[in-house]
Amino acid sequence: MAGTEPLRVALMNDFEVVVRGLQAMLEPFEHRVSVVELGAQSEVEQSVDVTLYDTFSEPQVDGDDFDEVLESDDPGAVVVYTWNVDPALVEIALAKGCRGYIGKTVSGAELVECLERVASGEVVVEPATSRVPAAEPHSPGDWPGRVEGLSAREAEIVTLITQGLTNNDIALRTYLSINSVKTYIRTAYRKMGVTRRSQAVRWGLEHGLTPDTMRRDVDDESSSQAGA
């Protein structure tokens, strides 16, 4: 996309650490992608080319809550960024008007290329396979609980436990089997040093595994930092 302005992108997730991680992941490509807005539990307020919706602990595209992203004033092309590449979810996302559905196995460079293709008018599903890996792949970006040793999937499960969801609720939200949910819980509990759900909830509350509420205009934020 040489000779053109970089894409204006908004990043959306309920955790500031997640959108900050995505922002850092895209920074090496700032000549191609300009992150202009970061949002947690808020609608996109600026006019952007693409809104990238990270599904960490979020409702999947088959829920009504996701529609609020699509109904923002000017979200541009909405792209879902997720581990859950179930073909049913892909079909629902595209039927609702999403222009991209991107698996979290892609690299930063591949993600940028996908966003550029979406902005040029393509509908992009990447990776094209609908098969979910049996083992959790390396996850780019950042997430709450990472510095304490939790994998991205373990952290997602613990955030949902902290919010009061049952194992069955979590399985439905994440499109994981109930046995996979229980496995992630066991491995997370060992790392957290807890044995009971009540202890896990307290641990989550103490380590930032509850949703944030924030919206940042990145241009204003950069100007504020420059003047500090």
TrEMBL record:
InterPro entries: CheY-like_superfamily, Sig_transdc_resp-reg_C-effctor, Sig_transdc_resp-reg_receiver, Tscrpt_reg_LuxR_C, WalR-like, WH-like_DNA-bd_sf. PROSITE patterns: HTH_LUXR_2 (PS50043), RESPONSE_REGULATORY (PS50110). It holds the Pfam family GerE. The keyword Phosphoprotein applies. One of its GO terms (biological process) is phosphorelay signal transduction system. Residues 8-119 form the Response regulatory domain. The modification 4-aspartylphosphate is found at residue 54. The keyword DNA-binding applies. SMART domains: HTH_LUXR. GO terms for molecular function: DNA binding. Keywords: DNA-binding, Phosphoprotein. Residues 143-208 form the HTH luxR-type domain. PANTHER family: TWO-COMPONENT RESPONSE REGULATOR. This is Helix-turn-helix transcriptional regulator. It comes from Serinicoccus chungangensis. The lineage of its organism: Bacteria, Bacillati, Actinomycetota, Actinomycetes, Micrococcales.
